[in-house]
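User: Predict the full complex structure for these chains.
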Amino acid sequence: MTIDKEQLIELLVEKTGLEHDQVKGQLSKLIQRIQQAAEEGKTFEIENFGTFGMEEGVLQFTPADRLETEINNKYAGMKPIELIGAFKEPEGDEIPDVSEMEIEQGEKAWSFDRDAAEEEEKQAEPDSEPVPEQAEIEKVPGQEPVDEEAQEEFEELINADQVDEAQPSPQKQEEATDEPVVAKGEDKDPIGRLLIAAVVLLAVGIGSLLMYDMGMFQELGLTNKESPSQTAEQSQALDNTDRDEDRTTEQPVIRSEPKGKDPVSNGEGAKEAPGDNQQGYGLEGEFNPSVNNGYMIVVHSMRDKQQAKANRQELREKGYRTSINEASVQGTTYYRVGIGQFETIEDAQNAISKIPEPYRSNNFIKRIQ
Amino acid sequence: MYNEFIKAFSEVVREEVMRKNEVQVDGIGSFQFKHRKQFQKQYDNGRVVMMPPKDTITFEPENNQGI
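Assistant: Here is the predicted structure of the two-chain assembly.
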């Protein structure tokens, strides 16, 4: 959906409570100031929103950290996941190295081959002699089709020479085609082993992820409870971007906040009392259902509703303000136990330092829906 | 009043963009919502990480804009 100028003015009228014409005037004033600043090569900054500036003759906008965080609210707290053992990319990188090595070997083999060929020509018994050498020579071409072709061409040349003198040429050709199979197996072994090791590591990694996913460890000790399901959930979140798009349909609840206090809600409230009982926000005490806007620190996330309730009770007894938030992830309902009600993400982040381990290091901030 | 207006303006843009709406501001350009998918990142030392997905706001300047 596109918000055009008229709709934007409507929304601004709603938000500010000003008259339509006033809003129109203010908006064009703002636009003019941005344009003017741009023309003079200056930057124009809107606090907690972003900066406009000219770059290469085009107006550019750099969002402020705060705006970026707000927009990225859905994925707040998600950190890069280390892919241990899943060395897909490095393998891709290693292969060129190996092939370089192979080329070197190939060159050696080539010179060797040439020697062998010469020896062959000199020696009177071509039947028995070339077999072992040929085996070694063929290893590399077996892996490198291009080399193989070249090798064959070369052999043809040799053979052509040999035809003049001796008869073993067809035999040799056969040997050349027969040997590679055995030789290849031997030579590829170290690389093969590496590959198998990588595949096994990958399988173990995926297996354990799946096990987390199934919630197999949920019955384990208390401290472990939130981490597995949370990790699984994170990875699910990673896997499925569609779901996120679905969830945005839930987001618009923000809109239903009372219009009067809204313009103030962002900046001033935060400045006055970060994270404390201003306007019903806070880390401790009872959950304030009248505050339907804000953020919570999610410390548990699990599929078992009873377990979630038990965890919530436990936290409540410790004096925290708790709430359970249901979220549907790929058709599975997760019960997220959150603590606190915070007006802004910053407040929530500040509060994280006040909560005990293991929650301090294992949580994420989420908008209360 | 002007400052309040700017605050309201940034909030409206933020909320609409979060709702994946494109906000056109005549004379400047438009703000859009953009989702960046997760991706694998590889460091030079071979370390591989999966970067999380990200939602971002992008700004598209108006075509006739410029000096």
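The radius of gyration of chain A is 35 Å.
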